[in-house]
Amino acid sequence: MPDKKSTADAETELASFFAKYPAAIARLGKALRKKLQARLPGLNEIVYLYESQGSLVISYSASENGYEAVCTLALYEAEVKLFLAHGPQLAASDAKKLLQGTGKLVRYVELKSASDLERAEIETLIAAALKLSNVQPKPKSQGSLILKAESQKKRSAAAKKPATPAAAPKPRVVAKKRARAPQAKR
Questions:
Q1: Cα–Cα distance between 40 and 17 in angstroms, integer?
Q2: Model's pTM, two decimal places?
Q3: How far apart (Å, rounded) are the C-alpha atoms in residues 152 and 135?
Q4: 7-18 helix and 23-39 helix, angle to the nearest 10 degrees
Q5: Interval 13-51: pLDDT, tens
Q6: What whole-number distance in Å separates Cα of residue 70 and Cα of residue 59?
Q7: Which long-range contacts (CB under 8 A, 24 or more apart) does 56-64 make?
Q8: By CB count within 10 A, which of 19, 38, 49, 125 is most buried?
């Protein structure tokens, strides 16, 4: 379940996530986010912070589930990637062979500047991902900003708790059959 926060609080927290990255990467990520919001109106932004992998992930989804995203913006220490759903099926729309990766569900394009999203070949990939996902942006609608970073941390902390040892199993008692005393013959 997404964290219940006001939009202002969520934006402030997201800004603190961007601040964890080098300035150039943070600026690029913010600019790409703005362009994706304009390109994908009405879609929710689901935010995950994967500190163990050093990545900030913003998924664009018609639902509140990041795994149902059409595309995902991922910031790393030294690069920014745009992941697209239906990656293997997008190969037919990828005339310039920009898609990278071998995932069964998604493929990615590395983005060097905010203007990369305006390139015709990347727009073609986004349009194809929308079509394959059966999602239509809603031009006069605004999606929600959903921070799942906190609930993700709670799950992670719960997973790291040491398991309580189970009680030692009780020994199984097996009754042995007594040998019968031989019967006297009559």
A1: 22
A2: 0.78
A3: 26
A4: 140
A5: 999 999 999 999 999 999 999 999 999 999 999 999 998
A6: 8
A7: 56/17, 56/18, 56/20, 56/21, 56/29, 58/33, 60/36, 60/143, 62/133, 62/135, 64/2, 64/144, 64/146
A8: 125
